[in-house]
Write a structure and sequence with these properties.
single chain; 88 residues; mainly alpha; 75% helix
């Protein structure tokens, strides 16, 4: 009878240690998940800021201003425009 009690005690201790270990791993994974979700939110904010910056830099008015001032470009005169018929 003492052997059975000892075996049952060892099984109970093993189950308890397994439960503690599983809970510890679950907490560590949860903390890591929270950290990664925070990182994801930060990256989403940065992505939005980069899209806004790109739309600012690629604005047609800004491009036209740079083309006129730095490159000396100007729109062509009406007699310089040639229309090509794509059906021919």
């Amino acid at each position: 009878m003492a052997r059975v009690n000892l075996i049952l005690l060892l099984i109970a201790v093993t189950c308890a240690l397994s439960t503690v270990s599983a809970n510890h791993r679950a907490r560590k994974l949860f903390v890591e998940l929270e950290k990664e979700q925070g990182r994801m939110r930060n990256l989403e904010v940065e992505w939005g800021q980069l899209q806004l910056e790109q739309s600012t830099w690629a604005g047609s008015a800004r491009i036209e201003k740079i083309a006129r001032s730095k490159l000396g470009m100007k729109p062509p005169a009406a007699d310089q425009i040639i229309v090509i018929d794509p059906t021919k």
